[in-house]
UniProtKB/TrEMBL annotation, chain A:
Residues 13-80 form the RNA polymerase sigma-70 region domain. Keywords: DNA-binding, Sigma factor, Transcription, Transcription regulation. This is Sigma-70 family RNA polymerase sigma factor. Residues 108-157 form the RNA polymerase sigma factor 70 region 4 type domain. GO terms for molecular function: DNA binding; sigma factor activity. Belongs to the sigma-70 factor family. ECF subfamily. GO terms for biological process: DNA-templated transcription initiation.
UniProtKB/TrEMBL annotation, chain B:
Keywords: Membrane, Transmembrane, Transmembrane helix. Residues 158-178 are annotated as: Disordered. The chain crosses the membrane at residues 66-87. It comes from the Bacteria. This is Uncharacterized protein.
Amino acid sequence: MDSERPAAFEAVYRQTYGQITAYAARRCDSPQDAADVVAETFAIAWRRMDELPPGDEAVLWLYGVARKVLANHLRGEARRRAHRAEFDAGMADLYAASPDRGIELKVIAEVFRSLPDDDRELLSLVAWEGLDRRQIATALGLSRNAVRVRLHRARRRFSRALTEAGIRSTPECRLVPAERSL
Amino acid sequence: MSTDEIDATTRLLARVEPGKPGGDPSAPEARALLVLITAGDFGPAEEHGGAVPGPRRVRRYGPQRLLLGLVAVAVLAAGVVVGPSLLGNGLGPATSYASSDIDIRREADLYVARIKNPYADHQRYREAFGTLGLDVDVRVVPAAPRKVGQELSVGVHGGVRESSGRTPEWLSSGMEEPDGTPCMAGQDGCYLVLRVPVGLTGQLVVRLGRPARAGEVYDEAGVTTATTAGGTLAGYRVDEKTVGEVVPEIEKRGLKITYLIATVAPENPGGYGMDPDKQDTPVGKDWIVWEAEESAPDTVRLIVTDERYDKNPVYGGPRDTVVKD
C-alpha cells in the first residue's frame, strides 16, 4: 500500500493542481500567499490520503481543505516558505495582470471584498470554480438546501452592496457586465 | 440584479479566468512542490484535523462548537465574542423595548422592530437595539414610493451566530399592520417593521425606505427607474434618445430634471460609475440619455453621457433585453 501511495498521490496532484492553484490565486492577494495555500493544501492531502475521495470528488475535497487552509492563513498563522522559491516564482506569473480593470471593476472588486467571507466564497465557487449546489455542498460540508438559501442571500447582499457603493444603474437591471471573452 | 447578472459580475473579478487552470502540474515549480511533499520535506505549520483550529476563545464552547458549519466558524473567527447574554441562559438584558420612536420585541429567533417614528434621530433606534445587546444602526431614508418599506442597503460587520444547528433567518423588512398584514405607508397603524435575527453578532447597518416629504430628494439607494410601470414616466422611453429630444417630453409632464453624468469604463463592459468631480459639466442637447430615474417626487434624473456608445451602459445592451414592460 505504502509503495502505491506516491503514485496515487501524484495522480491526484496532476489531476487537481490546475484547479487548486487557480482557486488559491483567485483568493489570495499575493503570489506568496497563494503558493502557501497550494503547498499546504497538497501537504495535507498527502498526509490524509486515506480520506481523499476518488475521482471527481477529490477536487471538491481539496477545495474544502484549501478553504480551511486559507482561513487559517489569513489569520496570520505561521508561514512555511522554506525551499519554495521556485514554486513561489511560478505562482507570481498569475499575478502579472490585475483583474480589476476600469473604474467599475475596481469598485465592484472593493464591494466584493467587503462582503462577508462566506458570501464571497459561495459566489466564487459558483462563478469562478463553476461548481453547482451539490458540489458546493460537498466541498463545504453543508446540506444542499443550506447552500441554496445561503447562496440566494449572498447574491442578494452583493447586489445591494453594489447599488449602495455607486455601481448604480436602474433597479430592474443595474449592471449587466458584458461577457468577457474567457 | 438577476442571479445571472450577479454571477457574471463575480466572474469579472476572477484573477484566473473561470474554467482555466492556475498552473501546469508539469511545470518545474509544480514538480518541485510534488517532490518536497512526497519526500516529507514539507509539512504544514500545524495539524489541520477534521475541524479548523479557530481562535482560542472558540474553544470555550467545546468540541461541538467546532463542528458547526464553516459559516459559524468564520463568524467566530472574525473576532466576535458571543457574550453570555446572548446564549439564552436568562442572565441577559431585556428581550423587549418600547418608546415613542420604536418598539422591539422578540418573536422566536427574531427581534421584530416597529419603527413608529420614521423621522427620529437614528441614534434613538440604535440605543433601542443596544438595550437588547444588538448593534443595529437603522437609517430611515426617503425613497421612491415603490421602495418604501424596503431594505435599501444592508451592511454587516460580523454575522449571525448559528443556534442549535439551524440556519438563522436573515433580516427582512416591510410596511406592516400590527398583525403583520402588509400595508401602505401613511395608513393608521401601518409601521415600518424590521426583523433582525437574535443571533446577530457584530454590527448591522441597514437603510430602510420611507416616503419622501415635500422637497426631499430620495436617498441614493432609494431611487428607481422612472420609465417602468408605476414610475412617473411610465410609458415613455428615454433610452438612447438625445437630451434635446426627451427634455420637452418630461417637462410636459410637470417634472423637473437633473442629470447624472455617467462614466463608462474602457470597452464599455456594462455598468457605469459616477465621478463626482464631473457632475458640474454642462449637459448638451446632443448628449445621449440611457435611462431616467426618480430622484424626488417631482424630479427625474437622466443618466447621460456626452457620446453615444455601442450599447446602453446602464443595461449592458439594449434595455429591451433586460426590462420587460
